[in-house]
C-alpha cells in the first residue's frame, strides 16, 4: 500500500490466495493515500458501499413486494444480522460483496426484463459491472452466474423467452471473454498458498454435516438470519412449499439458485482446497435470504388477506 499502485498489483500474487482477484485493495488504495492507517478513513468506502446496498435492496423489494410486511421483515433481518454488522465497517472484501451481489441481482432482473428494449449504453454498463464483480473476488463469478440464472428463469415461460435468452447470451459471452483470462490466471497462476501452515480445519467453526447435520443446519440458518430473537421468521421457509399462491415457484427457484446453490458451491470448494468453511464466505447471500423471507411473508400476508376478504373465494 505504501508504494505505487503498480507495485501494489505486482505484490498481490505473493499476498493473496485470489491473487489479482482482490478488488478491495484497488478500492481502498486511494483512501489509504489520503487517510494512511486511519481505520475510519479506510472504512469509508465500505460504509458507502453498505448504504448503497440498502438502497439496492429497497429497489429489489419494490419489484416484488405488495405489503409493508415484506419490507419490514427484510430490513429488520438485514439491520440486526450479526455477520453483516460485524463486517459492515471492516476493512475487508466481505463488507463490499453483499452490495455487489444486490447490484448484480437488480441489474440482472432489469436486463432480462427490458431485454432488446434496453439501450446499448445500459447493457454495456451492466456488462462492465459483471466484469468488475468477477474480478473483485473469486466468488464474483458465482454471484454473477447465480443472479443471472435466476433472472433468466423468471422469463422461461414468457412469449419472448427465446429472444431474451439469445440477447442475454451475447452479453454473457462478451463478459466471459473479457473477464475469464484474468480470473483463470489468478486461480491457476501464481498465488499465495501458505494458508496451509495455519492447519485449517474445515469444520472448526461450523458443524460437520456428516456428523451433526442438525448442528450444521442451525449454523447455516442461524448465520443467515443472524439474530436469535427473530428466528421465528424462519417459518416462512415452508410457505412456498405448502401454500398455493402466485409467486411460490419463483420463490422456490430463488431459494435454490441464489441461496442454496452458492452456499453448496462454496462448501464444495472449501472441501477441495482444504480450507475453513466460514459464514463470512457466504455473507453476500445473507441479503438474498432476508429478501426471500420478506417475500415469503409478503406473499403469506396477501394470501391470508384474499382468503378472509368478503366476496373473495
Plain-language structure description:
The protein is mainly alpha-helical. It has one domain (5-308). 68% of the residues lie in helices and 0% in strands. It has 13 helices and no strands. The chain has helices at residues 5-15, 23-35, 39-64, 68-80, 82-88, 97-114, 120-136, 140-153, 161-188, 213-225, 239-242, 248-273, 286-308. Helix 6 packs antiparallel against helix 7 (120-136), helix 6 packs parallel to helix 8 and helix 7 (120-136) packs across helix 8. The N and C termini lie far apart (65 Å). The mean pLDDT is 90.
What is the total domain count?
1
**Global shape:** globular
Q: Radius of gyration from the CA trace?
A: 21 Å
Strand content: under 5%
SSE pattern: HHHHHHHHHHHHH
Keywords:
313 residues, mainly alpha, 13 helices, 68% helix
What's the topology here?
Blueprint (H helix, E strand, L loop, with lengths): L4 H11 L7 H13 L3 H26 L3 H13 L1 H7 L8 H18 L5 H17 L3 H14 L7 H28 L24 H13 L13 H4 L5 H26 L12 H23 L5
